[in-house]
Design brief:
Keywords: Repeat. This is Pentatricopeptide repeat-containing protein. It is a single chain. By secondary structure, the chain is mainly α. It is elongated.
């Protein structure tokens, strides 16, 4: 229903209405009049219509072409929308005469049942009218044309021409004119006219005018046609007016206009594009609540949206509805739903839908398979993923590049390089070109398994085929640097330059890391300067690895200067950076300074993590400040940061080192009560503590316990146990442990050999000691000063001075300078054997080396006495 309006017909300014004199349309004769209005003299004209002098509002006819019409002709609402068949369009309608607005309107109204005659009449007189008269006539003509299906196209195209040719006129004003015209002459075709106008704006891509027109229609209670409404929404979304489009749809909903499935599709798609998932679901629910029904396409659209919301229950419900209605669920629909199920982790439902899909004679496609393969891989179930892959290959499907890439990547991640390379070879056989990503995955996998030869062959293949990119070079470069193979890394760098590939910041970071691993921080600093000169910007990782390098060299001052430079360069430190600084200070014995540093870091937004606290606790433990470490532990708990295995292990280790086995056991119990299992380090700390307490019973109990929980004792734990039995002079158990180590192929280090040989020599078991020493040398373990001292002391005590002198000679050959203790032990042994001359020679040699003899050696040489006060000789 139209609203009545009192607005005057001259609502639009005259200078804005001149466009009507330039209208183009689809009639048989296109006119673009530009001449001024011509007044015709009624007395001298032979025109068909004559204007009465006394009654200018009346039109008299001298011909039979047209009857005189009244200005108040009733509109027959029951008239047919088709033009009457007896209309005569061959006779002239009007000649030259002086027209008035009333005459024109009356004539057009007389032709309201003959739209073609109305159009012809308008063409005859449009150039002879003023602007105001033309507006009224044009609006009236549009309503007449729009009432008959035969002339719908004419009305639509006249409006389209108007929209294209006259951008300056307000759409609101023109809608108002059309509304008033319909109301004034009691016409009922105006809804179509205004909808045609809306469509014209949309087709001309005048979206703002279209929106204004739409809102004006709604204000006038004119329902926009759904098709045009959909086109408007689509145009707004395409023009990046998504929020405005959704606001417009909200206005429609408030008026009870929900549109059709295409409308729903448009607004839901717009919501998904903006991430408005909840709003999209709301529109769907309101659409259904309105009583609107989805068609097959509508179901597909909503299912697609539900996959992104995501709403698994709704997806499956919609699929079931489609099945009950007998609609075919497309392959694309199944593919989306299976993919969404996989993303939500509901693989059971995904597999059920896959089977249902196959039963519906829809073949399982690569996308469905890839979704399932990806899920299995992410769950660590690569075996099942490979099985599914083999099934689709055997079924004749050709996996795409993404599927190959997925499997090669995950096989490489889990270290199954044999299978990864097998799939890679299969890929090439199937003529699927490997990408640089695939090469990089394989390269990473080979290097993680220390298969450098395989990695080199693959790298050469990537280079040969032109697939190797900067990332490919960086993978190998970083690995070489991490392994300390800086020379090989430098050669690779040069090859990359020759290939025309510009090093990235990752490339430079790799070289810096390599130099820092070798302790060459000066070279690493030089590379940092090269980065700055190249125009690249160092990142947080660049600074952090260099800071770590200086801390490792013990140069904490330079490390902290680098940190300040990093902040000054406006490069935000990461948690890795903050933790590196804290850890570095702890390692160089400056743990007490970390609290002040932490406060400064907190000002930059850093929140200490469990790793931070663990570094500080470990630092205090290493410095012997166990009570302070315990205070940090309590502060950590107050800050709401729960301890982890590393925290407990550090504290247990600290208490054991400070001989407070009671607190160590208390911490052990707390650790167990909090649901943590001891790791090998924690077991090692407790075992070492018991061994130092000579409590081998509890040490053995813990040793058996760690075996029961599936852990394997390492060299450190065996060393503690062997030292514990040696201190109790139980060399039999110590040797049994050594034998167990050998059987389990656990390497025996120098410290263990030293402990065993020292105990055997003290027990007088020279043969066993000699055999162990030979075994040690055969395994490439080089004796150090402590081992040599143990050997010389043990041999001298057992009157094997000549053999002890051989050990001293080997020390000199190996550039191991004898200590004062070695000289004193040898002098005492020589004196016992009566070889005073050699004792004096060693004494002089000792003095020449700047070493001072102890009291025992002095008494032997000066007083000729041997008091035997050296504890190593007993």
């Amino acid at each position: 229903m139209w609203k009545k309006s009192s607005t005057n017909m001259s609502l639009i300014p005259l200078h804005k209405l001149r466009f009507f004199l330039q209208l183009s349309n689809l009639c048989s004769k296109t006119r673009l009049p530009s001449e001024p209005h011509v007044h015709v003299d009624p007395e001298t004209t032979n025109s068909t219509f004559i204007l009465s002098d006394n009654h200018p509002e009346q039109i008299t006819s001298k011909s039979n072409h047209m009857e005189v019409v009244s200005s108040a002709i009733d509109f027959d609402e029951s008239s047919c929308s088709e033009e009457p068949p007896d209309a005569d369009f061959t006779k002239p309608i009007v000649g030259d005469f002086l027209s008035t607005s009333k005459h024109v309107v009356d004539t057009l109204l007389s032709c309201k049942n003959q739209p073609t005659m109305a159009l012809k009449f308008f063409r005859e007189i449009e150039g002879k009218l003023g602007s105001t008269e033309t507006v009224d006539a044009f609006c009236l003509l549009l309503h007449i044309l729009a009432f008959y299906s035969k002339t719908h196209g004419v009305a639509r195209n006249m409006l389209s021409d108007y929209v294209v040719g006259h951008p300056g006129l307000s759409s609101n004003a023109f809608v108002q004119q059309l509304v008033e015209c319909a109301g004034r002459y009691k016409l009922e075709s105006s809804s179509r006219v205004v909808n045609y106008l809306l469509n014209g704006y949309i087709k001309a891509n005048k979206i703002k005018d279209a929106v204004d027109c739409f809102k004006m229609m709604v204000d006038q209670n004119i329902d926009p046609w759904v098709h045009f409404m959909n086109n408007l929404l689509k145009a707004m979304v395409k023009g990046n007016m998504i929020d405005e489009a959704l606001d417009l749809y909200d206005e429609m909903i408030q008026r009870g206009i929900y549109g059709d499935c295409f409308t729903l599709d448009e607004v839901i798609s717009a919501c998904l594009a903006q991430g408005y998932n909840e709003k999209a679901e709301k529109y769907y629910r309101e659409f259904r609540a309105s009583g609107s029904k989805l068609d097959a396409l509508g179901y597909d659209i909503v299912i697609q949206a539900a996959c992104k919301w995501p709403n698994l229950k709704l997806m499956c419900s919609l699929l079931k509805d489609m099945q009950e209605m007998g609609w075919v669920r497309s392959e694309d629909t199944y593919t989306r739903v299976v993919g969404a199920c996989v993303k939500q982790g509901n693989v059971t439902e995904a597999l059920r839908l896959k089977d249902e899909m196959v039963k519906s004679n829809i073949p399982m496609n690569v996308k469905v398979t890839k979704s399932l393969i990806k899920w299995y891989c992410m769950q660590g179930n690569v075996t099942t993923a490979l099985k599914l892959f083999n099934e689709i290959v055997e079924a004749g499907f050709a996996p795409d590049k993404g599927t190959f890439s997925l499997l090669i990547n995950w096989c490489s991640k889990i270290g199954n390089m044999k299978k990864a390379y097998e799939i890679f070879s299969q890929m090439k056989v199937m003529d699927v070109q490997p990408t640089s990503f695939i090469f990089n995955c394989l390269l990473n996998g080979f290097l993680k398994q220390d298969l450098q030869e395989d990695a080199n062959r693959l790298f050469d293949e990537a280079v040969e085929h032109g697939i190797a990119n900067v990332v490919t070079y960086n993978v190998l470069l970083t690995w070489l640097c991490d392994q300390g193979k800086i020379d090989e890394a430098s050669n690779l760098w040069e090859k990359m330059i020759v290939k025309g590939l510009a090093p990235s910041i990752v490339s430079y970071n790799g070289i810096i890391l390599g130099h820092c691993r070798k302790g060459h921080v000066d070279d690493a600093s030089r590379v940092m300067n090269e980065i700055l000169k190249s125009g690249l910007k160092p990142n947080a990782y660049t600074y952090t690895i260099l800071i770590d390098g200086f801390f490792r060299k013990g140069d904490s001052e330079h490390a902290l200067i680098l940190f300040d430079q990093m902040v000054a360069a406006k490069i935000a430190p990461t948690d890795f950076t903050f933790n590196t600084v804290i850890n570095g200070l702890c390692k160089v014995g400056r743990t007490s300074e970390t609290w002040n540093i932490l406060n400064k870091f907190a000002e930059k937004g850093y929140v200490p993590t469990i790793r931070t606290y663990n570094c500080i606790i470990s630092g205090f433990v290493k410095e012997g400040a166990v009570s302070t470490a315990l205070s940090v532990y309590k502060k950590m708990s107050e800050d709401g940061i729960p301890p982890n295995v590393v925290t407990y292990t550090s504290l247990i280790n600290g208490f054991c080192k400070s001989n407070d086995i009671g607190l160590a056991l208390k911490m052990h119990d707390e650790m167990i009560n909090n649901g943590f299992e001891l790791d090998i380090t924690a077991y090692g700390a407790l075992i070492d503590g018991f061994c130092k307490q000579q409590d081998m019973e509890n040490a053995c109990r813990l040793f058996s316990e760690l075996l029961e929980v599936g852990l394997s004792p390492n060299t450190v734990i065996y060393n503690s146990m062997i030292s514990g039995f040696r201190n109790l002079k139980n060399m039999e158990e110590a040797l049994n442990l050594h034998k167990k180590m050998t059987n389990e192929k656990i390497p025996c280090d120098l410290q263990i050999y030293t402990t065993l040989i020292d105990g055997l020599l003290e027990d007088g078991k020279l043969a066993l000691a000699s055999n162990l020493y030979s075994e040690m040398l055969s395994k490439g373990v080089v004796p150090d000063m402590i081992m040599c001292t143990v050997l010389i002391n043990g041999l001298c005590k057992r009157a094997q001075v000549s053999n002890a002198l051989k050990i001293r000679k080997e020390m000199c050959t190996s550039n191991i300078a004898p200590t004062a203790l070695v000289y004193n032990t040898l002098i005492a042994g020589l004196f016992r054997e009566g070889n005073l001359e050699e004792a004096i020679r060693l004494h002089d040699e000792m003095l020449d080396r700047g070493l001072a003899p102890d009291d025992t050696s002095y008494d032997i040489l000066v007083n000729g006495k041997f008091k035997g006060s050296n504890p190593l000789l007993h």
